[in-house]
Each structure stands twice: as structure tokens, then as C-alpha cells.
Fold this sequence. Notes:
Order of helices and strands: HHEHEHEEHEHHEEHHHHE
Number of helices: 11
Structural class: alpha/beta
Oligomer: single chain
Radius of gyration: 20 Å
Number of strands: 8
Helix content: 25-40%
Largest sheet: 8 strands, mixed
Amino acid sequence: MSIFGRSTYSSAGYAAFRPSYPPVLFNRVLAFHNAHRTGNIAGTGTLLDLGCGHGLIARAMAPSFASVIALDPSAGMVEQARKLTSDPKITIHQGSAEDLSFLPDSSVDCVVAGQAAHWFDYSKTWPALARVVKHGGSLAFWGYKDHVIVGHPETTPIYDRFVYGHEDPVPGTESLARFWELPGRDILRDSFRVVVPPESEWEDITRIAWDPDRKTGDLSDAPEEALWQRKTLKLGELEGYVRTFSAFSGWKSAHPERKSRAEGGDGDVVDLMFDEVVAVVPEWKALGDGRWRDVEVDSVWGTVLLMARRR
């Protein structure tokens, strides 16, 4: 079972700190979906949201469809989605992308997956989608990868060392590296390159991927259509976001004795990471006493968007 499905994972924390998606992304997906459709298409058809998490995508895209089916393998995520969702056209189920047997043939107009497609077993998912997605229907899978803080490239090596380093970033403190669930994380970081819709069943296959320069933080080469996950947020919110990583949940399970300072402990791996992040920027360090958490920063993530149309 994925860490996201474990009872120890905080689905509420995920809902609170994971970045949302901007309208420009949904508009791009809907433009692709509607490109070959004619007539009065507003609010028609069925959307299938795979790996729906707390229901963010289902709620955002519901106005464009007559019905929405949201699916997630985690009971905690399904519970969170139901708490946050009141739209009667959205139905939420516990289940996986690999088993869509509860859906009739050719019953889905558009299938989406946000920050989830790197977990699927495509030996089962592609046949399942080929059966349920209508001729001319669309697919859109997207994800965001590692972030940089714009204007502060000196913070990026600290993040990389704590998150992916194979040596202890601080003596006696293990990094998150071995707790990433593979190959899922690698598939996402490699822009879904191994996620290839079968050409016998899908056409108009489009992949838009980009990563910021992790040495300079330069965004000048970013194509407009890929720069959709950029947020102004507080450093404290960024800290909360890192704590939603599945790898951090695994780290906590492996080191139950390492309590965060918020829990009254001496500090966990995320506390130590942000100690270094704050220390490397003098104006943040000068604030002291946790006031750095209120500093607003411009963060941008590498992104990937894969779209295709059912033959």
C-alpha cells in the first residue's frame, strides 16, 4: 500500500498545504478536451478523476461536466474529499485506476489525474481506460515536481541534500532519500516519459514538461504553457508542504523518537532543513523566533502535462 493510503498519513495536512492548481491549467485541459466537439457542450459529459486526493480537481472541473466520478485508493483521502465536497454532481469512491470494472463501457468523456499518474500500474490502467473512455474522449495527466524559491538559489542545494541526499544532511539525521516510493517518484521527476498512451488506442498525444534551473533558479527558458505551478506563499506554508511528502511520512515512521519542535521535541528532519534554509538568507535569519515563517516567497515547481485523445 502507498504511504498515502496508510492510516498514519495526514490527509488533512495534504489538503491544507498542497498547492492548488490555477485556472490556466484547467482551461488548457478543457480546450484540448473540447477541440473537436461541436454544438452546446457546456456542462455535458462525464469526468473521471483518478487519484482524486481531497477532491480539488473534481470540484474545480465539475462546472464543465454533467457528472464527475472521483476515485482514490486511500480511505483517508476519500473521507477528506467527502468532507470538502458538497456538489451533488460529484460522486466519490474508494478505488484505483487499475480497476474500473464498476463503470460501463464508453461511459467517460474525459479522464484526469493530478499528481497521481506516476503511481499507476499501466499494464492494467491502459486497458481499463481504453474500455471506459469514449471515442473522441480525452485524457489529461499532470504533475508538479521539485520547487525552487525564486531569487534565492542558495536555498536549493539545502533542499536537495535533505530530500534526496544519500548521506546524512546533518550528522545523526537521515535524509528523506530512502523513503521515496519508487519508481513512482522517479517517474514524476522524469516528466512521465515512461507513461506512453498506446498509439493503437490514443492519438493527438501531447506532452509539455519543464524544470527550473536548480543552480541559478532562472526561469527565462520556461514556456508559458508549463509555468502553471507558481505560488506566492509563506515560508511556514512551504515548511508545511514539505511535511506532506510521502517520504517524510516514511521518515517519521522510521524515527518515531525524533519529534518536531511543534510537538515539543528537539526537531525533526524538516526543522533542521529549514534551520539551514533560513540561515543562508541573512534577512530571514535576522527575524529569529520563528518570525521567518511569515516571510512571503515566490516558489515555482517543475511541471508536466500529458494529454491524449481516444481513437
